Amino acid sequence: MGIGLPAAIPGAAPGQIVEWARRSEAAGFASLAALDRLVYDNYEPLVALGAAAAVTERIGLGSYVLLAPNRGPSALLASQAATLDRLSGGRFTLGLGVGTRRDDYRAAGADFRTRGRRLDEVLAELQETWAGPPGPGRVGPAPSNGRPRIMLGGRSAPALDRVGRFGDGWIAGSTGFFAEGAAAVRAAWRRHGRDGAPRLMAVAYFALGDDGPRYAREYLTDYYAFVGAGAAAVADSALTTPGAVRDTVAAMGEAGCDELVLFPCRAEPGQVDLLAAALG
Predict the structure, then answer these.
(1) What's the pLDDT score for residue 134?
(2) Is pLDDT of 231 > 90?
(3) Which of 43, 103, 105, 194 is the one with CA 20 to 30 A from 36?
(4) Secondary structure of the chain: what % helix, strand, coil (to 5)?
(5) pTM higher than 0.90 for the full model?
(6) Which residues lie below 8 Å from residue 202, measured CB to CB, with a gap of 6+?
(7) Which spans in the chain are helix H?
(8) Domains of the chain, earliest start first
């Protein structure tokens, strides 16, 4: 079980981010994760994860997922990811995807239409940068273990095939698509002659305690407003009772999910304690 930082919740205070990280590690969660948006009132995910790394020692850190095609030169991203990986003692997992918001790309001056092709280029360039020899001309620090683990998001056919070519695993943007997507990823893994098996992850949202459904609806209909009427369906899928949390965890385990990451809909660190209690 992983847990998301409240870094993408408008109005989240810096102290809440830090306390959330401390409590998550103390509660025994496997990882802390951050979402990526540019045109929204959220903290930049790599910076937020850096703050979490500074106040924790064990818990994993993941960007699920970073919008790589609108982040400029690959060398800069390679240096940022390697820096976070080194500062955290090798705890960082680099999750990458393309996203579906045109305004994020417009604000970054990046081409939305070619984002899939650009992600392929970024992945190849990251590998080349990290594999570079030490000494003059090397970009950034060397990652702790050769390179960070790379998880890829997306549900299109090219995105699922990309996992077999470049990734260490796949992260589903919703639990509902997990089974279908996982089967396609396993097939891509075999098709590209990969050894072992892909790591399979998924994300969901939660809001526990008093007024949990209200917090989930207010936050998720705002965060996903760009999808129109579909935002209400996302809000309705949030886990707002301990029973719903346990049922979803059990179902995802049976479906073959290696790690389920639950992102919050409210920023109070007490949500960490409520989730830990719901999980037993």
Answers:
(1) 80
(2) yes
(3) 194
(4) 50, 15, 35
(5) yes
(6) 171, 172, 173, 174, 175, 178, 252, 257, 260, 261
(7) 14-27, 45-54, 74-87, 102-108, 115-130, 157-166, 178-191, 212-223, 230-236, 242-254, 270-279
(8) 2-279 (3.20.20.30)
